[in-house]
Amino acid sequence: MLVHSRRARRAVHAVFLALFLPVFALPFLVVAAASLATRWSGILPAGVTLDHYRAATGGDAIDALTTSLLTALAASALALVTGTWAALAAKGSRARRVVGLLFMLPVAVPSVVVGLSLLVAFSRPPLLLNGTSTIVVLAHAVLVTSFAHQAVSAALDRLDPAYEQAAASLGAGPVRVLLRVRLPLLLPSLSAAAGLCFALSMGELSATIMLYPPDWVPLPVKVFAATDRGALFSGAALAVVLMVTTFLVLLAVSRIRTRAVHR
Amino acid sequence: MTTGIRFDGVSVAYGGDVVLDSLDLTVEPGEVMALLGPSGSGKTTALRAVAGFVRPVSGRVFIGDRDVTDLPPHRRGVGMVVQQYALFPHMRVDANVAFGLKARRAPKDGIAARVAEALEMTGMSAYARRYPRELSGGQQQRVAIARALAVRPGVLLLDEPLSALDARLRSDMLAELARLHRDLPDVSMLYVTHDQMEALTLADRIALMDRSRLQDCGTPQDLYRRPRTEFTASFVGTANLLPVTVTGDGVRFAGAVLDVPAGTAAPGAPATLCVRPHAIGLGEGPNALRGKVTEAQWRGATHRLCVDVAGHRVTADVGEPHGTPPLGTEVTLHFAARDAVLLPAAAAGAGGGAAHG
Ligand SMILES: Nc1ncnc2c1ncn2[C@@H]1O[C@H](COP(=O)(O)OP(=O)(O)O)[C@@H](O)[C@H]1O
Ligand SMILES: [Mg+2]
């Protein structure tokens, strides 16, 4: 929005904060406060302790965080490869819309259904994956591939064919054109898609809870377990750890993107 | 190594629309051929058929004596330069120029030297470590040309390479291209443009396209001095096109008999007389035309006068030293018989450009 006078700009900022703070920031502030609290005073947490964080950064909790990170990395890598591949393969063909809709289906149904269907599909040899970490990764990938596919498809549509044609006329075969020209030009969109997939996977709970084996417990499950048994403050500390970690990873990804755009 | 290009009855259609209609054209080895024509006449399509980005529905394309019709673009060995440059934005200038050499697996130790040579040739050596976005339009176009030349193609395809540049830069680049062609006498060039100046300046021969078809082909002088159709006359240079009737020993125009070689035209037949504006003089002389000045433009060295001769508009570029005649003045124009060309009358509805007043 183009706003020129300084007063008008201040007004716009004020309105933005008035809308943004209660909806986005306040819930997170409450969680952050709760993670440090010892008791409730009325509707607000009160008292200060670091005990919850000591619990949230040791032993079990760290294992869960690592599990979450590994799951999210694997799932977003899988989603990115699948989504990009599908977008490249279906480009300019009539299959494009159909493929897009297929990837979108898992997002449209409750995640529990996705978990359940994977459970049923992979419950028998030779496709026996129940009780493995693989099925958790698979579920996350299924849930987030649509976002990768959408982002890459849209970027491919905008990509000027002149680049790949210039490359081909210079003697580059399809593989070289893909690796040296198309993918580098898609890098900003790919990294944006990677960030989104990663964030979605870090927070996934409903499908995970149906599938996770005892030796592969992602952090959101821990958060849920803690709040479920009434340990709200510990749950809040775990949630803060989850948020901060995700935020740091997204920050790193967006730095890659900034570099890619500004070259 | 010399390589020409040959179109052998090449037709291209997009979903049933024929946009290139059985093109027959040969670009000799080392020749610069301009494909000149109005926008939408199928020039780019013809060029893309050589590069391999569009498949002809019929006909064959040859590069040298190799039939490339069924080869994918990366096996054709042509260099291509397009209007929007298409430099790879994520690579520095030197990497852009080296791209084709790497793609063709040139020996590693030779690549740097070839890149330096190509940048030298286009005067871009000082910019090797820049990214394309750090260059001006003219510089980007030079890099695009260097990139295409680095692989030493036998054939260079240029699609309106100068149309994104401003007028000044365009004429500089035109001179550069002419110099490049002198330095690389073996490279055949197919140069697509809608600008007759570029075609006249650069080309050994001009192929004139209109409405998906090749209309005419010849040297610039040939097309300019001896056009064969009204379209050629009006598209290559400017022309007065006057409707005349052939008589026994000349032509009749607006009641007057003009002394013009009628060639083989049958007496009584309608025809079109083509006279270039600069061939028309002010004052009495052979083939006098009388009329009123309706428009006058001062153009520095010359005046452009538009004179209404019996309802027909005649344009003359005259070097009148005593100022522009006022509008409405009765003037007499004349031209020499050898400066006039008699053309067959255009079929009704076809071939625009006749200067009916
Ligand atoms: N990819 C395409 N799909 C459909 N029609 C096209 C395509 N490319 C060009 N055309 C049509 O083909 C005709 C000739 O185009 P083109 O060769 O680009 O003309 P020029 O280069 O002479 O301006 C135009 O009418 C244009 O609309
Ligand atoms: Mg064109």
From TrEMBL, chain A:
It is found in: Cell inner membrane; Cell membrane. The keyword Acyltransferase does not apply. Keywords: Cell inner membrane, Cell membrane, Membrane, Transmembrane, Transmembrane helix, Transport. InterPro entries: MetI-like, MetI-like_sf. GO terms for biological process: transmembrane transport. The chain crosses the membrane at residues 12-37, 69-89, 101-122, 128-148, 185-212, 232-253. It is a multi-pass membrane protein. It holds the Pfam family BPD_transp_1. Residues 65-253 form the ABC transmembrane type-1 domain. The keyword tRNA-binding does not apply. Its main location: membrane. GO terms for cellular component: plasma membrane. Belongs to the binding-protein-dependent transport system permease family. This is 2-aminoethylphosphonate transport system permease protein. It comes from Streptomyces eurocidicus.
Automatic annotation (TrEMBL), chain B:
This is ABC-type quaternary amine transporter. Its EC number is 7.6.2.9. It comes from Streptomyces eurocidicus (Streptoverticillium eurocidicus). It comes from the Bacteria. GO terms for molecular function: ABC-type quaternary ammonium compound transporting activity; ATP binding; ATP hydrolysis activity. GO terms for cellular component: ATP-binding cassette (ABC) transporter complex. Keywords: ATP-binding, Nucleotide-binding, Transport. Residues 5-236 form the ABC transporter domain. It is an enzyme of class 7 (translocase).
